[in-house]
Amino acid sequence: LLLLILSLQWTTVISHSPSPALLAAIVDTDQIPADMPQQVHIAVTKKNTEMSATWVTFEDVPQQLEFRKVFTTKTKIVPAATTKFVNMDGWVRYVHRAVMTNLSPGESYAYQVGRPGYLSKEFVFKQLPLQPPYNILVFGDLGVSNGESIPSLLQEAANKSFDLLVNVGDAAYNLFSNNGQTGDEYFATLEPLFATVPYMVVAGNHEAEKDTNGNFTTYRNSFTMPDEGYGDNQFYSFDVGPIHFVALSSEYYAYFEHYGMEPVFNQYDWLVKDLEAANANRAARPWIISFLHRPFYCSNIDAVDCHTFDTHLVRDGGLSMPGLESLFIEQGVDIAFSGHEHSYERFYPRTQTPDYVPEPYHNPAGPIYIVSGAA
User: Fold this and answer.
1) What is the pTM of this model?
2) What is the Cα 154 distance to its own chain's centre?
3) Mind listing the UniProt keywords for this protein, alphabetically (predicted)?
4) pLDDT of the chain along its 375 residues, tens only?
5) How are beta strands 164-167 and 134-139 bridged, if at all?
6) Coil, strand or helix: which one is 173?
7) Neighbouring-strand partners of residue 226
């Protein structure tokens, strides 16, 4: 498999003040007219001939998406579906979604969103090819006011370095903070990357909004992940060439006292069926890669390390809820990415009864676990 997976890291800065480069990069969304589109980001769908786009306005104005193949002039227009989103602080945003269809894998497309006379800038993306190589960036725990990786990310966007972005949770710190303006800044600042490379996400603990009586409210309304019938962007799967990706919510387990156990069982029942289908399709897609926020294993020793009860629930189960590790092993998940811990760590293939294996990567008996937090 010709696959380069980059896990983003940065060295902790002693000062808590943003660097000049970061301050220069952050976009002040107050300067964007309320009727103009902003915060554009794209995501893959269940079909390799589609790409979805999501964006925001602060006025209820009709929106559409115009796209064309690069180096051609024939444009297709897709009306946007609009949702009025009122956050937990009462602020109103209008979230617009449109799907580009009949795309050719490996080809580049240009698109704009908005309405005639009030369109965004033109963005260009490459529809994921059917075969490797791919450059996939996996990262988590990326703030905006302290996101010292952001200038580098924007430079990599300009260099067209990535084919796919996988965010393992905790975005912006927090999407809903300051009446949601922190999330606005996050999306607007990283728009050059998120609007040109498909951006796939899972929820972390900083998306829960439990302290404001929310239920992942801003997270659920901000993204457009492949729909598994629940419409909440929490768990889903998609395919990229020889890889079957599985996105999961560890936060269902962590916050079951707030949101109940039903989401845990819904996700688990879906996951069993999804992994069984993926295994039946191994000839076409031999790799199964999962990503979720909380790691099963880590060597960190801190208040949220891998010895907590929350981690135990996610990994091993408890209180009648099924854990995920035994299913990962049974169904042959190859790699499991996570964040939460603000560090980078990679484990040898691991089972629940770890024995010495002289060639651990030859027909491994368990998944390789990779922690990629603190971007």
Assistant:
1) 0.95
2) 17
3) Glycoprotein, Hydrolase, Signal
4) 445 555 544 333 333 567 888 888 999 999 999 999 999 999 999 999 999 999 999 999 999 999 999 999 999 999 999 999 999 899 999 999 999 999 999 999 999 999 999 999 999 999 999 999 999 999 999 999 888 899 999 999 999 999 999 999 999 999 999 999 999 999 999 999 999 999 999 999 999 998 888 899 999 999 999 988 887 999 999 999 999 999 999 999 999 999 999 999 999 999 999 999 999 999 999 999 999 999 999 999 988 889 999 999 999 999 999 999 999 999 999 999 999 999 999 999 999 887 778 888 888 999 999 999 976
5) parallel
6) coil
7) none
Residue with tokens 């926020």: 293
Please check whether residue 373 is in contact with residue 141, taking contact to mean a CB–CB distance below 8 angstroms: yes
Q: Is 181 exposed, middle or buried (0-12, 13-18, 19+ CB in 10 A)?
A: middle
Amino acid sitting at position 15: S
Domains and CATH numbers, the chain: 3-372 (3.60.21.10)
Specify the amino acid at residue 21: A
Q: Decide: 104 and 49 in contact? Cβ < 8 Å.
A: yes
From the list 188, 189, 129, the residue with the least C-alpha distance to 164 is: 129
Tokens coding 51:
């790409």
